[in-house]
Every structure is written in C-alpha cells, then in structure tokens.
Amino acid sequence: MNIDEIIKQRIEFPETFFQDEIREGFLVKGKMKRAWAAQMEVLKEIDRICEQYGIPYFADSGTLLGAVRHKGFIPWDDDVDIAMVRDDYERFCQIIGQEIPEGWAFSDWNEEGGLYAFGRVINGRAYDTRTERMIQFHGCPYVVGVDIFPLDFVPPEKEEEEAWHLLLKYLYSVLCEVQKSKVDNATTEQAMLLEQYLKQAEEWCKVTLDRKKDIERQVMQLMEKIARLYKRSEAKELEMVVYDWQLDKKYKYKREWYEERIKVPFENIMIPIPVGYAEVLNTMFGEDYMTPKRVQTPGHEYPFYIKQDILLEKMRKRVLG
Questions:
Q1: Model pTM?
Q2: 122 forms bridges with which residues in the sheet?
Q3: Selection from 99, 95, 98, 121 nearest residue 108 by Cα
Q4: Fewer CB within 10 Å: C terminus or N terminus of the chain?
Q5: What is the pLDDT of residues 37-66, one digit of tens each?
C-alpha cells in the first residue's frame, strides 16, 4: 500500500488533535494523543471485521465510560476495551487470525504464548518507526492494541452459580500457584503442595492434567472451559467472569442490556455501546459514574508505553556498549 492509500484509508484527525491538552484538569500529552489515534485505527479494523461477519461488540469498561461521559477517551486512560458475548467472542476468535493485516497479531489463552483469559489484537510485535507505519498510526511507533473481553452466561440457578464461582476462583488460585512455582523455582514442599491443589482440581472437574506438558496452559484452558459452560438460551444474566474471578465482588449484567447496540461519538468516530449502558455503568462504577474520578487501575501503569521506552533504552545501551 502506498502513502496516498494509507492516508486515504486512515481515520482523519485535525493536526490540533495531537497538541498537548488539558482535559478535566489533566494534561494529556500529544504523545498520548498519537497512541489514542493508533488504538482507534486498530479498533476501526476490528469494527470492519465484525461488520463483515455479523459479530456484535460493545465498548466496555473505561472505553464505555469515556464514550458516555467524555464522548471520547477518559483523559487519564490509555487503552481501548471492548466486550463480546461469549458465543460471539468464540466466532471472532475463529476468524480473526485470517482477517487481520499482515504483521498484526491476535492472542488469547488458546493461542500459543497467550497469557490472558481475554483476546487482544495488536498492530505489530515491536517498536516500529518505518515511514509507512508512522503515517498509518499517526506518528505512534509503539505496539498498541485493543483488549476484547468475553461476557459469559451466568448459570440460571443460584446454587449452580455459587458452585461455578467457587470452582473458578479455586482454579484461579491453582493457576497463581503454578505461575509462582515457575518464578520461584519451587522447593520440594511447595511442589508437593501444588500437586495437592492439582489433584483437587482434577477430582472436582473430572479431568486428568498431564504433568509432562504445560500445566499452566492446561489450567488456563480448564478455567475457560468452565467459564463458557452455560449457553445463551439458559441464562438471564451475563458476567465478565474472566475478570471477576480475581475479585471478591461479582459484576453481573442483565442479558437484555446487551440485546441491542446504539452508536455514540468517541473522539471523531462512532462506536457501539450496549442499549442498557446506564445500568451497565451503574453496575461497574456506581450511581455517580458521570462524576469524573482519577482512579488508577491496579496493575495498569500509565502511560502504557513506559515499559516499551525502558526496553528501548536498554537495547540502545547494549548497542552503544
């Protein structure tokens, strides 16, 4: 694709968009604006693919709140989150690999090397300052992407739901122990304790885990299998259980809130949000969700490209000796 075609196909932004700006008393630097624009390009490609295959998706989490409250990004947010109902998410996972542009990537637990229980589409695998890429992504050389969270169907009976949650939380604790043992080079005592956890998981789930293969990935896949156990026709509620199994609180949503979509402005594009967005946001953020609060998500460092900058600096030092 030549430069003129890239410019024609990308989202249009006025040059003033990329200037430093104070929003809600918070300084958004031009560098972050370029990262925002690059993420919107990734979202645009996801939107194209979803439209082609009839796969509905919804702005989620901070992106949903930003769309409703700010008509764009929350000033102190630096990523894009969307959600899909589980069966739509599974259809998306089946086709995305063959549809994304060359050099892009998709990962979730089912992909080799996937680390997360949700999907992520990224625009490359390395910092890239080639002319064509810099033009396509509005001067942003970083790896950027969009997170895609599956909304699972909650068991219809309360007792089943409680058992479902307890099992998932137990498997999550087993996963944490597996990961910890890999980092800490487990002692004999820790290895024996982990083996007890694994045997309990096997007993409860009626499965056999192959100790000669990647146990971490097997536990991940078992968790996902349990998460998607129930079907759309059975459930009245949805839950982003891949997020909630790490928390004490459950965030549940009525299925009808996601039965339809409406499109709203987001910076200078339109994005889909659930028809029951007010109820969804009330569940996620509380009744006063329209009042801005500067809250940092645990484990999420702002801006996201700090880690990439640190890695680049280390590489420069190695090259320069």
A1: 0.94
A2: 105, 145
A3: 121
A4: C
A5: 999 999 999 999 999 999 999 999 999 999
